[in-house]
Amino acid sequence: MGHREGTASFVYGDRHDYLLTWEIYDETKLISRGERGLSDLSSMQSVSEQVKSTADTRKLELRLALVRPTGEIAAEKRLDWNAGGQQASGSAGAIHPAQ
Fold first, then answer.
1. Distance set, CA 36 to CA 8, 58, 69, 94 (Å)
2. What's the rounded Cα separation, in Å, for the pair 55 and 22?
3. Which of 2, 25, 67, 94 could crosslink 19 through cysteines, CB 3.0-4.6 Å?
4. Among residues 44, 43, 51, which one has the least CA distance to residue 22?
């Protein structure tokens, strides 16, 4: 099975010194952002962030980006949280390589 361009270099390339960035939006308003250096991608890691919501919060969007040491985006993902439940844009559980 072939890989999309960018995917092969992520899967088989260097997995050190990446940066995970995130932004959390309430509708269109940025309410939180952060980043975390990932020294090694060979094991699972978790990141948590507390976000204050109000009774008016109806939809939150989490934007994740995995940035290569060169500054290029290796993969990105957007997740929507609605008052009725969570929905992921794209394939569930997958991080999509940047084009």
1. 24, 27, 13, 20
2. 23
3. 67
4. 51
